[in-house]
Amino acid sequence: MIKNLKDIFMLLFGCLLVAFGTYFFLAPSHIAAGGISGAGIIVNTFFPNIPIGLFMICVEILLFIIGFIIIGPIFGGKTIFCSFSISLMILLMEKIYPTVKPFSSDTLMQLIFGVLICGAGMGIVFNKNASTGGTDIIAKIINKYTKISIGKCILIPDIVVAIAACAVLGIDKGMYAMLGILLNATIIDRVIINLNTYKQVAIISSNGKKIKDYIVEVLDRSATIYYAKGAYNNNNNEVITTILDRKQFLKLKEYIVKIDAKAFITVNEVNEVLGEGFSSII
Questions:
Q1: Under 8 Å CB-to-CB from 259, ≥6 apart: which residues?
Q2: Residue 3 and residue 182: Cα distance in Å, rounded?
């Protein structure tokens, strides 16, 4: 139950970042940096009476049906939740702040901050096996069958939007859009990698039992134990190995310092862990 609530909170937070970055940074500067939001900016330029949020909802319904059929109901359910959340958030922002001017006269700064915020939000959403809807569903389908990173998959449909931006908004805006798409893809991949980075820890300590108990009972993680012989004095040592997230590792390190300041610890970063307690292997 707690995990489900945490996942919902993370999805909503990711959606809020995407909506905020789109409405307050990209849209005011007419930067169509890919996706349905970018297409919405292009349409809104021609037809100001069509709200960006309303356009996104209509297009996302069609793409959602496709994603639901091809990828599955779990992904589909999360995606419809995220896509409508973003659209409704943007509609709400349009009601509260109907006239939004760029924060900066520098279009490049608007682009960088907008893409940073949106890319971080999209990375959070993708990491929870969902998408923000729109062309992201197409990217997720490509990722499913090709195993290309999700950031690179997003480039494919978004480039089409960028080409349209060149034709509609001018070559300058189109070039900004292309730069935004490349930055967005890179940020999404980096966010996903960082969210899935764990610490592989190996510990040799005279208080091994206390450390094992702390890992299992307090950190709620398992550990593997093996024995090794030291080359210097030929002593047999118990080696405890475990995999933890960043916060768990900091807690474990603080605990070890308290009970055995002479413990020997090695740490490696791993970018993906599959299996029980981590990401599904399927």
A1: 205, 207, 210, 211
A2: 33
What is the Cα–Cα distance from 116 to 114, expressed in whole angstroms?
6
Q: Does domain 198-270 have CATH number 3.40.50.720?
A: no
pLDDT single digits (tens) 30-54: 766 666 766 777 777 777 787 776 7
**Residues 78-114 as b or e (16 or more Cβ within 10 Å = b):** bbbbbbbbbbebbbebbeeeeeeebeeeeeeebbbbb
Neighbours of 128 (CB within 10 A): 16
Q: What token pair was written down for 121? A: 């939000």
pTM over 0.90: no
CA atoms of 100 and 24, how far apart (whole Å): 7
Residue ranges of domains in the chain: 2-195, 198-270
Give the type of residue at 93: M
Element (H, E) at 257: helix 246-259
The SS3 assignment for 50 reads coil
